[in-house]
Design goal:
Elements lengths: L2 H22 L1 H8 L3 H4 L1 H21 L4 H21 L3 H28 L6 H29 L2 H22 L11 H5 L5 H21 L2 H9 L5 H24 L3 H22 L3 H16 L2 H11 L4 H28 L6 H26 L1 H5 L5 H5 L1
Length: 397
């Protein structure tokens, strides 16, 4: 494994920690600012919208400079946003800090995915992408639970200050380990935009929005669901988030392994399984053991979709992968924003803390239907899809 992948994984660890830790600290933040839980949920939605906007914006700016330099700038922006959140006197300033940090997120994973894929042989690309995303999944096993514990014990501001420090470590790691890759020839905005003319790219992104939205519908409100419905203590939320992180880690490895060989069957299995588990979670949330198993499965099935969906976008975008890759990361977060908002709506409507699970099941089911449709379209137009598939080789070298 190239050491550069480790540097990318460190950056991913910091980003993953700040994205997910807010869910475990939602009650503390809401209490501190004197707002309701659904209102505090806007910190999840706001971050996700910032990723959606920041992914194409920062990637377009990044086409003018080398990829390593851009990755370092993004980690600097990420650290600054978390410092703002740590010191925020009001909920509005806290949200602004979240948005500043989120602007770096999509472009980091988008550009990082392309860099990771370029560092290895063609038949190992999905595995390399999965290695970078391992940082994101390990964040959920170590960073998020630790951040939640610190936030509950010492105060949530300390958690965000710690995440800002992680951003600085990520920046230094990239400076030291990632090779100085030249700006790719022909990396022009117009050329990158042409990737979106391919309906398969748009379908993969729609699958990303709906599939990952299914995960976030349930996980955004995991703290109140587990304490009010399953009967867990506030302290147990930390360990339930560890379980979610373990599921994400295993699912990401599984997705990376099979995406290089059997991409579409991997998507069918993970999306179908996710829809079923989320539907059942409405019932299993009332039992401590079954609720814990459900959280593990939601993490595993949700993240098993990440390497195949990211690789499918890179494959279908052909010679212009950078913007499409970043926008697909934005699509993950559009799903997060949509699901966090919908989950808040069904709770505010008085349907209870398990209602977001139904929202998630419907979103994941819709993603599965899109995957079937995408494969049917591909079978109908095999010549057009396969002809340009060999094109990326001269572009990158």
């Amino acid at each position: 494994m190239p050491l550069a992948l480790l540097a990318l994984a460190i950056g991913a660890f910091g980003i993953g920690t700040t994205e997910f830790v807010v869910m475990g600290l939602l009650p503390e933040i809401a209490g501190d600012y004197g707002v309701s839980i659904p209102s505090a949920g806007l910190l999840v939605t706001g971050y996700a919208i910032g990723v959606v906007v920041g992914a194409p914006l920062m990637t377009v700016l990044g086409t003018r400079i080398g990829r390593r330099t851009m990755l370092m700038l993004l980690m600097g922006l990420f650290a600054a946003g978390n410092l703002i959140s740590a010191a925020a006197p009001t909920m509005g300033v806290m949200l602004a800090g979240r948005i500043v940090a989120s602007l770096a997120h999509g472009a980091f994973f988008g550009i990082g995915s392309v860099v990771a894929a370029d560092l290895v042989a063609p038949d190992k690309k999905a595995g390399a992408i999965a290695t970078m995303f391992t940082g994101l999944t390990v964040a959920n096993i170590v960073g998020v639970p630790l951040g939640t514990f610190i936030g509950q014990a010492v105060g949530w501001r300390t958690t965000f200050a710690g995440v800002a420090a992680l951003g600085v470590v990520g920046l230094l790691g990239i400076a030291k380990l990632v090779p100085a890759l030249p700006r790719p020839e022909g990396a022009h905005l117009r050329r990158e935009v042409t990737a979106f003319r391919n309906p398969q790219v748009l379908l993969a992104m729609a699958m990303t929005v709906l599939g990952f939205g299914g995960v976030f519908a349930a996980i955004t409100y995991i703290a109140p669901m587990m304490t009010h419905v399953a009967g867990y203590s506030d302290g147990a939320v930390t360990w339930l988030l560890v379980l979610f992180g373990v599921g994400m880690f295993l699912g990401n490895l599984l997705g990376g392994r099979f995406a290089d060989r059997r991409l579409m069957p991997m998507l069918y299995a993970s999306l179908g399984g996710l829809a079923v588990v989320l539907a059942l979670f409405t019932l299993t949330a009332h039992d401590k053991v079954l609720a814990a198993v459900s959280i593990l499965l939601v993490g595993a099935l949700g993240f098993a979709t990440v390497p195949p969906l990211q690789k499918r976008v890179l494959d279908q975008a052909h010679g212009a992968p950078t913007l499409a890759s970043a926008v697909n990361i934005g699509a993950f977060n559009l799903g997060n924003a949509l699901a966090a908002w919908l989950g808040g709506q069904v709770i505010a409507a008085g349907l209870g803390y398990t209602a977001p699970n139904w929202v998630g099941a419907l979103l994941a089911g819709a993603a599965l239907l899109l995957a079937v449709w995408s494969a049917a379209l591909e079978r109908r137009t095999p010549v057009r899809d396969s002809a340009p598939a060999a094109a990326p080789v001269p572009v990158h070298h």
